[in-house]
User: Which sequence fits this backbone?
């Protein structure tokens, strides 16, 4: 006759169940990560057209989807689409860079976030222009506001730490935000001419860390310039370029451009602290070039070494950031230039007129020139960044 199971066997069965459950979750997580990797793309990179400069339009701080539940929110996005269309038609760039804060993901479920992301890239994709994106602090933001603020379909899913709650009961649940990886996966899964990348997994949750060579028209294997993209954080984690990213940059640049022979341009969203050192006071004067200097630089939280590395590389010509909507200047810093883009979107704070920074690269002789094209088609703040 079988005796009833002892207390010990129940506890050990429970423990085994919890272990099994944990194992299951880890496995599912792993499979999910593997699936989340971008499909292996053919190794084609942007290439210059014969006899023509390579022109890049930078769209910064579009903030699509901001207050999507009001009527002015969507109207702003219509305006931002108009700004991009004007710039694209006037400049006909070869490439577009979305320099972060493409959307305002605060309090936005993933379905909406990818919808707004699509809207933001559509002026570029509908013209068949290749592009790349880098994340800003608003693209992946935690939920801050009470649920009463949302319409029923807008209330995000509640996530509870499943493994822990099975075993220990009480655990804080939180609303599911829109992680960078999912946004990037969405962009890469679309059939669009995107050159964005997920970056090395060891740098996650810092996602958009990658480099694109722009190759010469004559030979696809000869890089004319390297475009580096770094994720300056924000949203669900600190606003910083970490020492792991610095290591990555050091390794990568040593691997692909060991003797600094090929010029390099750097793109990220939040200005580094060095921008504070060069910020002009009271207006903008030589050697700085720009039109608006209306607020103080809002820099990253700390400096972990990326600037030291960049100033030591003679190949690095300029860094481009967004984030501060009221600044559009370029100022020299040591041997390179620190540039702001121009606020392109109607979303986000500030009502300074909208525009886009243009960067034009020529091969022989090598030069990097830049200017700002406004919504009303006025062009200003021309500057030679290779001098
Ligand atoms: C859209 O743009 C027009 C023209 O610049 C402006 O008058 C209007 O206020 C903008 N609307 C919103 C909601 O930003
Ligand atoms: C998300 O999209 C749905 C359907 O389009 C809309 O009803 C809801 O208001 C949106 N929520 C947010 C937070 O934008
Ligand atoms: C950089 O290279 C060193 C030496 O090869 C290696 O140990 C390290 O893991 C690399 N770091 C990154 C972030 O790739």
Assistant:
């Amino acid at each position: 006759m079988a005796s009833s199971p002892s207390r010990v066997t129940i506890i050990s069965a429970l423990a085994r169940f919890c272990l099994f459950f944990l194992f299951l979750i880890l496995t599912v997580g792993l499979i999910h990560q593997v699936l989340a990797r971008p499909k292996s793309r053919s190794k084609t990179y942007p290439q210059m057209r014969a006899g023509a400069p390579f022109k890049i339009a930078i769209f910064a701080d579009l903030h699509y989807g901001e207050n999507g539940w009001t009527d002015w929110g969507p109207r702003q996005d219509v305006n931002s689409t108009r700004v991009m269309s004007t710039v694209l038609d006037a400049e006909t760039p070869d490439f577009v860079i979305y320099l972060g804060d493409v959307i305002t993901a605060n309090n936005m479920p993933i379905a909406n976030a990818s919808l707004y992301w699509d809207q933001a890239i559509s002026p570029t994709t509908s013209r068949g222009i290749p592009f790349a994106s880098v994340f800003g602090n608003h693209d992946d933001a935690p939920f801050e506001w009470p649920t009463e603020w949302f319409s029923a379909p807008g209330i995000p899913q509640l996530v509870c730490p499943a493994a822990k709650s099975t075993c220990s009961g009480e655990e804080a649940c939180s609303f599911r935000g829109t992680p960078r990886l999912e946004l990037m996966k969405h962009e890469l899964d679309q059939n669009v001419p995107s050159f964005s990348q997920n970056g090395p997994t060891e740098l996650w949750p810092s996602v958009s860390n990658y480099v694109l060579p722009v190759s010469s028209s004559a030979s696809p294997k000869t890089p004319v310039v390297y475009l580096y993209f770094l994720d300056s954080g924000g949203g669900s984690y600190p606003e910083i370029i970490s020492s792991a990213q610095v290591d990555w940059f050091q390794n990568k640049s040593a691997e692909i451009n060991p003797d600094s022979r090929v010029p390099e341009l750097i793109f990220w969203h939040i200005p580094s602290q060095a921008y504070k050192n060069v910020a002009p006071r009271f207006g903008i004067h030589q050697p700085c070039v720009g039109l608006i200097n209306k607020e103080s630089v809002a820099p990253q939280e700390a400096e972990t070494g990326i600037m030291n590395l960049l100033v030591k590389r003679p190949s690095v010509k300029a860094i481009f950031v967004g984030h501060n909507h009221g600044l559009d200047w370029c100022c020299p810093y040591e041997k390179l230039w620190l540039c702001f883009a121009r606020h392109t979107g109607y979303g986000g704070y500030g009502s300074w007129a909208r525009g886009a920074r243009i960067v034009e690269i020529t091969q022989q002789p090598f030069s990097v020139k830049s200017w700002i094209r406004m919504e009303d088609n006025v062009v200003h703040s021309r500057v030679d960044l290779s001098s």
Remarks:
- The first strand starts at residue 54 and ends at 59.
